[in-house]
């Protein structure tokens, strides 16, 4: 029914996941797999670009919850960027902005990572 | 039945005695005239007819094998020939032959002639019955007609001699005799029973037919040329003599033909046997497939039949079982693990199979699996494809593997081996393929049955779970003079993660909770019941909604796994005063309709299970609201606002706001109905809900202590 795609890019020391389409209980395992691969390769600086993410369900939100602890333990972070207002509202309702860094632009997230590295 | 037989036997005996007495009298007293002759013939015909009637039901049975009947004929014929030879060796005075009449010169001649005629006559009748029943096995119309014509001519030829003197020759009688012989020849081409015989039976039949042909030739010579036999018959009764002559001729021709025909069928007997056992086996198998659900029995049958039909040395079946793609498994993340189960092993051990087939890579099995076609190895020690297997001593020289293919995928392999090189011909491969097809159907059947039983079971469990979960939701809505309440909750699947409940905390305070567990289905349902437990336990202890939510986070945080969470919205309403206190843990905001307008109330908060205490309790905010008369609070889950239509658009907050605005004058139930109808219209003909959906409408009817409504 709903379509969901992930593209992985590397920018400097940061790994950017671009999400596209509907992230729900059916498609959440794809994102889980992508996170697992990053963690397996010790990539802990992660930016999730949500520009083309049209919908996220509670199961989709759960994926971020599942990995944030491990990532932060390894001195990394998951930063979320470029959300549409609708998607931001879902994150916001749950109080995600208090737990995650949600930024308007990917560039800014990458910059924050590299600043911290210095 | 018995009485009738005794009647037949006694009658025949009586007629024979009478005839004998007449013959004795005629020897001494000359009495002639056509009347006396006809009377004697009537006696003979009568006695044999009774004899025929006695034996017809016994000999005429068609269910006996023709070979058995021929065997019996052989015994009888041997006896008769021996007797005839013995009789013709007797030195008797013989007959006086004056005026073409025969009269015995002494009593012993008369006696021997009578006895021999009776025996030959009885033999001829038996022969007639036996041949007729063999001919009529095929039950074809042409055959029936030919037998009937032959019988008519036979009786006609016999009857035509009544007026003749024993040594006469009559034109009509001779013509009818040759016509009868002609019909006998025609009937002798009817040998359909030979084809159906097994090879073994054919060999017997060949020997029997040969012996019978020889014996009948001898008998033919005897009754025509031995003076004693020939004249005895003619003396006793010319029609009987004619009858016996024709029947012996018939027997001679028929068994001659039978011999030649069996001889021609013998070379193909083996092939015919094989074809027949193939057909029978396949028939048995296909019946088994549809009737028997015992999988092992079917596999056993398949390999046993393959062994038998191909005369293989060993045979076995391998079933490929793909590891179940568990629901928890990541799609596409795992390759299919495959296990091979060997079943129905005949005459070979598992170890021998392993050494015979060689390694997984480049072995016989992998070739059959990759090509999905039958693999025939004529000579294992000389096959280019399996050079590495040449040295393995297994005692197997040739081998056939046929894959069991279902929807283009191999689900098993059927093997047969022989000790000889080039042991399997194309026919064998075809037969094994046919067996493999049947086995495929059987395996598929058994899998489908297993699946449908499993599905049936799960369905029942889910229906049970659904009923259980329904009981976790309020069975009755609380009733107050001051408050109207209505609510609705529908899961997207059988069970869901939505929760709403009410709790009378004390005389004044009513707790109203709506919650949504992340995810859907069974896991969500488990957490939902846990939320209920927490609500029941904690809400009476912590009257402040904020306090309750903080405590609920502590209680649930430890038991919820890290990628699940619960969003809650909790209101405590004073049913005396209309004072409402509200806290929200990541849940959808409350929609409020007041005389001033419609708006969402969204106190700060984080979802339960998302984080540990310090931050959580800092963030959770509690709002106090004074409800005025006619004010409405609407609590719901995201299944409502995120309901999608065919164009994948969401229902959204704006539409909910608009419909609430329109219906603010109506009762709580009417508002609920209106919102649900509006959502359904928006979603259109879409099947089920995408998500669990819950809606609670609370309308304040009390005469508020404070005028109007106020949001503090």
Supply the helix-strand structural class of chain A: alpha/beta
Outline the low-pLDDT stretches of chain B.
325-335, 704-712
Instruction: Please report which band the strand proportion of chain B falls in: under 5%, 5-15%, 15-25%, 25-35%, 35-45% or over 45%.
Output: 15-25%
Query: What is the count of distinct domains of chain A?
Result: 1
The tally of structural domains of chain B comes to 3
CATH class of the largest domain in chain B: Alpha Beta
Oligomer: heterodimer
Number of E-type strands of chain B = 18
The number of distinct helices of chain A, counting runs of at least 4 residues, comes to: 4
Write the CATH architecture name of the largest domain in chain B. 4-Layer Sandwich
Which H/E pattern describes the elements of chain A? Answer: EEHEHEHEH
Look at the structure and give the CATH class of chain A.
Answer: Alpha Beta
Largest interface: A-B, 24 and 32 residues
Determine the fraction of residues in helical runs of chain B and give it as a percent range. Answer: 40-55%
Which CATH-level-2 architecture of chain A? 2-Layer Sandwich
Mean pLDDT of chain A: 90
Strand content of chain A: 25-35%
Low-confidence stretches of chain A: none
Walk me through this protein's architecture.
The complex is a heterodimer of chains A (118) and B (712). Chain A is globular. Helices cover 42% and strands 32% of the residues of chain A. Chain A has helices at residues 28-40, 58-73, 85-93, 106-117; strands at 4-11, 14-23, 45-56, 77-81, 101-103. Chain A is built from four helices and five strands; from the N terminus they run E-E-H-E-H-E-H-E-H. Chain A has one domain (4-117): STAS domain (Transcription Regulator spoIIAA), CATH 3.30.750. Chain B folds into three domains: 65-265, no CATH class; 295-323 and 336-452, GAF domain (Beta-Lactamase, 2-Layer Sandwich), CATH 3.30.450; 474-711, Phosphatase 2c, domain 1. Helix content of chain B is 54%, strand content 16%. Chain B has a six-stranded antiparallel sheet with strand order 9-10-11-12-15-18, with helices on one face. The termini of chain B are far apart. In chain B, 39% of the residues are buried. Chain A binds chain B through residues 2, 25, 29, 32-33, 54-55, 57-59, 61-63, 65-66, 69, 86, 90, 93-96, 98-99, and chain B through 330-331, 333, 516-520, 562-565, 567, 585-589, 602, 604-607, 610-611, 615, 619, 638, 642, 648, 650, 691.
